[in-house]
Amino acid sequence: MRRNPFFSPARIAVIASHTFTHLVRMKVFYFLAVFAVLMVAASLFEMPYSRTTENTAEQELIILKSTAMGSMAMFSMIFAIASTALLIPKDLEDRTLYTILCKPVPRLDYLLGKLAGVLALVAVTLLLMDGLLSIILHLRTSGLIEEEMARGATQGWPQEALDLRKQEISQQGLTWSLQAGIGAVFFKAAIMAAIALLISTFSSSTLFTIIIAVVIYFIGHFTADARDYWLHQQDGAVSIQMKWVSQGISLIFPDFQLYNIIDAAIEGKTVTSSIFIRLLVLTCFYTGIYSVLSWFTFRKKEF
């Protein structure tokens, strides 16, 4: 008799594909139209006060990137939390869950397939947004460089000054650091999807899952500050047990300040590949921990 494997990547891929298709049919991609309108409006919008500074071109590009990245972060978070919170209740309502679980499908495969489907949807959405941003940013950067070169030629700037000005504007354009920042947006969405999946395994309300996930998201942005303040208040007399408690809290509530390369990317600062890889490993760690906890609470749940 052939034994059913406990973990099957092929089975997870099938469930992920079904989840992705199911979410697309829910017309979540309509958010892309809103994002596209927002992006185009931002590229045409000109801040009046920016004309009073010397770095007009850089500020215009920073505003464009800030608007786009903010939209990406917001929509990816909405996708990740809302889509994941709807998965299990929707399967229960459609009775799809009973059909799947009555077959020899391990519940771990079911959960991982659902999470992979959501992450695939978020990834595709971000890729489309990234493509749109890259096109607009490239066109806007090229236009601003041409304007600056024409202004410099009119005012008789030396070639060194023209080259330096071109380099300064290009630094705020399409760079690897910007792509790393968008990758960090996806990492945060992946963690929040895993947290929403964990909550949905013991929650009977979709609204409760969404609210708690949003609260954890905001707590995650203040975890590092609260921990540093608390440890500082102890004047260095912190026992090893309290440090373990601190690390345990950090594990429950992910430290999203570690993903601040998004702000650095918007400001045109360099983000090294080593930092990006460390964030990737940290994201896999958080996602893995929450997925295991989800399976632990879901494996013997009665329906």
TrEMBL record:
Domain ABC-2 type transporter transmembrane intervals: 58-295
Domain of life the protein comes from: Bacteria
Cellular component, GO annotation: membrane
Compartments it resides in: Membrane
GO molecular function: ABC-type transporter activity
Recorded topology in the membrane: Multi-pass membrane protein
Keyword annotations of the record: Membrane, Transmembrane, Transmembrane helix
Keyword Heme attached: no
Main localization (coarse): membrane
InterPro entries: ABC2_TM (IPR013525)
Membrane spanning stretches: 28-47, 68-88, 115-139, 174-199, 205-224, 275-298
Protein name listed in UniProt: ABC transporter permease subunit
Source organism (scientific name): Oceaniferula marina
Species classification: Bacteria, Pseudomonadati, Verrucomicrobiota, Verrucomicrobiia, Verrucomicrobiales
